[in-house]
Design a protein that fits this description.
single chain, alpha/beta, Rossmann fold, globular, 3 domains, Single alpha-helices involved in coiled-coils or other helix-helix interfaces, binds 6-phosphogluconic acid, N-(1-d-carboxylethyl)-l-norvaline Dehydrogenase, domain 2, 20 helices
Length: 473
């Protein structure tokens, strides 16, 4: 018999995707360089299923129906190039290689162009949702040749998560590296979302002295309304968990250094290249970097003093302010992420459909949230909306929360609790809504020290002033 889908890389993601694909009616052939891992999978979860585990890439190629569909689930970077180099001589025109890792989108563009010369299709697909998502329904963001997508669509639609309206969380994203690009921005937003929640936790826990147990209840309650999302839900679960050894909340004994594998950093780097402002995402990346300087922070904490026990104000009012700040900041972060997607769509000619991307993110992925239904509606009504903050519903949602948002940021500042992401979201909002920013002074300075010239509000043209002569007058 011929198998319909191949998977190279049977780590937890590859292995769970194999089970998901088979469960949905597509027999799978799998291969892993690590023979022990392959055998364990064959004799364990794959036993009795239409999953064949083979010992070489050659056997994988022979077992597949044509055109072959092969998903690579190997670590991003050189392992992807190594697998492609191994498989390429065995492939035929029209075969489809799919990279399901968190690859850098420009690597995907390069690999796709190289394979296309031999008529081999290459699909770089974002896959979000972690191990459980891979098994029961991830969000999928495939990019590449449209005809390759046609050949993959039945499988991808079958295995994807489903939103509440029944729609599968997958759609063709765009050509070349578009799928991995969108996954990168998804991760940037994921960093922002996580950092905003962390700052609210810090504000309420360290600033207002609310215990982890009480916070678990609060987050669970917030998860019932406008903030409903996977990340809020798991935060409530996390805060509820007790450490078996110490009896303390587990979260309190976890080392406060956040790791990162690079997708958030890529989002920031690329946003700078594009000229797209994403201050909340940048603040989230920076906050992880700051957190990793643990020994410096420990030393500094002994010498750099903060404010003395400021009375924080009414507890219930501040909890409400925190909730409002979290939601408004989250809207600002999504506005930045979607603004970046719009800029990239132009720059790289990806022709991204922002409504469809919001739709894909509604279930299965890490940033799934009820807010995404509203993002979808906003782009449905106005596909070329310049900024989500200008959508009527989002505008009024932010307006209603504006006072609480400012109170939470001001109180955090007063208490000496760092709130890089919350404050960046608020500053983004204030900068975006300002008709006049102090860039006039920046331009004057540039002209003063470097004769870089400036333009005027009242006249067309480019001007230069001899500033010292002017100062002498
Ligand atoms: C997902 C996640 C996932 C990512 C992890 C870890 O959508 O399922 O984005 O792809 O690898 O969240 O990322 P960091 O190690 O950079 O935090």
């Amino acid at each position: 018999m011929k198998y319909e889908f191949g998977i190279v890389g049977l780590g937890v993601m590859g292995h769970n995707l194999a089970l998901n694909i088979e469960r949905n009616g597509f027999p799978v052939v799998g291969f892993d360089l690590d023979q022990k891992k392959a055998r364990e999978f064959a004799l364990g979860p794959a036993a009795g299923k239409q999953i064949l585990v083979v010992e070489s890439p050659d056997l994988l190629i022979q077992a597949l129906a044509k055109p072959r569909r092969i998903l690579l689930m190997v670590p991003a970077g050189s392992p992807v190039d190594a697998v492609i180099a191994r498989l390429k001589p065995l492939l035929e025109p029209q075969d489809i290689l799919i990279d399901g890792g968190n690859s850098y989108f420009l690597d995907t563009e390069r690999r796709g162009a190289e394979l296309e010369r031999d008529g081999i299709h290459f699909v770089g697909t974002g896959i979000s949702g972690g191990a459980q998502g891979a098994l029961w329904g991830p969000a999928l963001m495939p990019g590449g040749q449209p005809e390759a997508w046609q050949a993959l669509a039945p499988v991808f639609r079958a295995i994807a998560a489903r939103a509440e309206d029944g729609q599968p969380c997958v759609a063709y994203i765009g050509p070349r590296g578009a799928g991995h690009y969108v996954k990168m921005v998804h991760n940037g937003i994921e960093y922002a979302d996580m950092q905003l929640i962390a700052e609210i936790y810090d504000f309420l826990h360290r600033g207002l002295g609310i215990s982890a147990g009480e916070l678990a209840e609060l987050f669970a309650e917030w998860n019932q309304a406008e903030l409903r999302s996977y990340l809020i839900e798991i935060t409530a679960d996390i805060l509820r968990k007790t450490d078996q050894e110490t009896g303390l909340p587990l979260v309190d004994v976890i080392l406060d250094e956040a790791a990162q594998k690079g997708t958030g950093k890529w989002t920031s780097q690329n946003a700078l290249d594009l000229g797209a402002p994403i201050p909340t995402i940048n603040a989230a990346v920076e906050s992880r970097i700051l957190s990793s300087l643990k020994s410096q922070r420990s030393a500094a904490s002994r010498v750099l003093r903060g404010p003395q026990n400021l009375p924080p104000g009414n507890r219930a009012d501040l909890i409400l302010a925190a909730r409002q700040a979290l939601y408004a900041s989250k809207i600002a972060a999504y506005a930045q992420g979607f603004g970046m997607l719009a800029a990239a769509s132009q720059e790289y000619q990806y022709d991204l459909n922002l409504e469809s991307i919001a739709g894909i993110w509604r279930a299965g992925c890490i940033i799934r949230a009820s807010l995404l239904d509203q993002v979808m509606r906003a782009y449905h009504h106005q596909p070329d909306l310049t900024n989500l903050l200008l959508d009527d519903d989002f505008r009024s949602a932010v307006e209603q929360r504006q006072q609480g948002w400012r109170t939470a940021v001001q109180t955090a500042v007063g208490l000496g609790i760092p709130a890089l992401a919350l404050a960046s979201s608020l500053a983004y909002f204030d900068a975006y809504r300002a008709e006049r920013l102090p860039a006039n002074l920046t331009q004057a300075q540039r002209d003063y020290f470097g004769a870089h010239t400036y333009r005027r509000l009242d006249r067309e043209g480019v001007f230069h002033t001899d500033w010292q002569a002017a100062a002498d007058q």
